[in-house]
Amino acid sequence: MEAPHHQAPAVTLKITVNSPEHMGELGRRLAKLLRPGDLVMLTGELGAGKTTLTRGLGEGLGVRGAVTSPTFVIARVHPPLGDGPSLVHVDAYRLGGGLDEMEDLDLDVSLPESVIVVEWGDGKVEELSDDRLRVVIDRAVGDTTDEVREVTLTGLGTRWADADLASLGA
Questions:
Q1: Long-range CB contacts (< 8 A, 24+ apart) of 75-78?
Q2: pLDDT tens across 36-56, in order?
């Protein structure tokens, strides 16, 4: 008999992204896999392309409003233009207290109906969901053009066990 909290194995995909346009396209393609209640954690240095990826996600989800970095508002909600989920874009960089502050934002009320994208969320928002997609954006080693990124997507939990992440790399 399995333990009740059996964690499905993580599903990992590495993609090389060659330009900001490609990063946006990856976001649009990823949006097709996302459903309400999904938590996407974005990790990468400043300028890595987190907001560019999220902008593509917003386009793919068909939400209202320009996706810009929510650094100063901490969280921004983009309502759907059609039947899809809202996009909640969170910048946890200045959230020192992690989840307590997140809860103060009342974001959890919209979690089940929304796609939540959190920048700088490592160590802060994992408790929101056992199922999450971790997206790590790294500058390619030795890249001189400063455009190439290595994007590692890791799907954690049962939600992602059968998601077709491989289709993103096709």
A1: 75/105, 75/107, 77/110, 77/114
A2: 989 999 999 888 999 999 999
